[in-house]
Design brief:
This protein has 114 residues and is of the alpha/beta class. It has helices at 41-58, 79-87, 108-112, and strands at 17-22, 27-35, 65-67, 70-73, 89-92, 95-98, 100-103.
Amino acid sequence: MDCDGLGIPKGRKRCDYLFFGAGSDVTCVAPIELKSGSLKAGPVLEQLEGGAKMADAWLPQGVSFRLIPIVAHGKRIRRKALNDLRANKIRLRGQRKKAVLIKCGDSLTKALGQ
């Protein structure tokens, strides 16, 4: 999402990747944030929300979708950050979902299946 060609304003919060996967009857929309070191829940949630806002702008109206915010992490997540991530939901149109946590290197299909 850092590509200049996308036209996202420099100061705007954004996740690392935004995945769209078209299925037979529903599209998966997954804002993805990658964290190799320790993480703080607040900035991670803001980045996922920023990704969801971009998805809202790019996803055609009337398309059925399933929101799956994903945080891929490399290190153990501290309890406070973990509790904060679990307590807050990412919003996209009428859907509100908690972030799915996976370890760096895990398959994306693992997260999309949750």
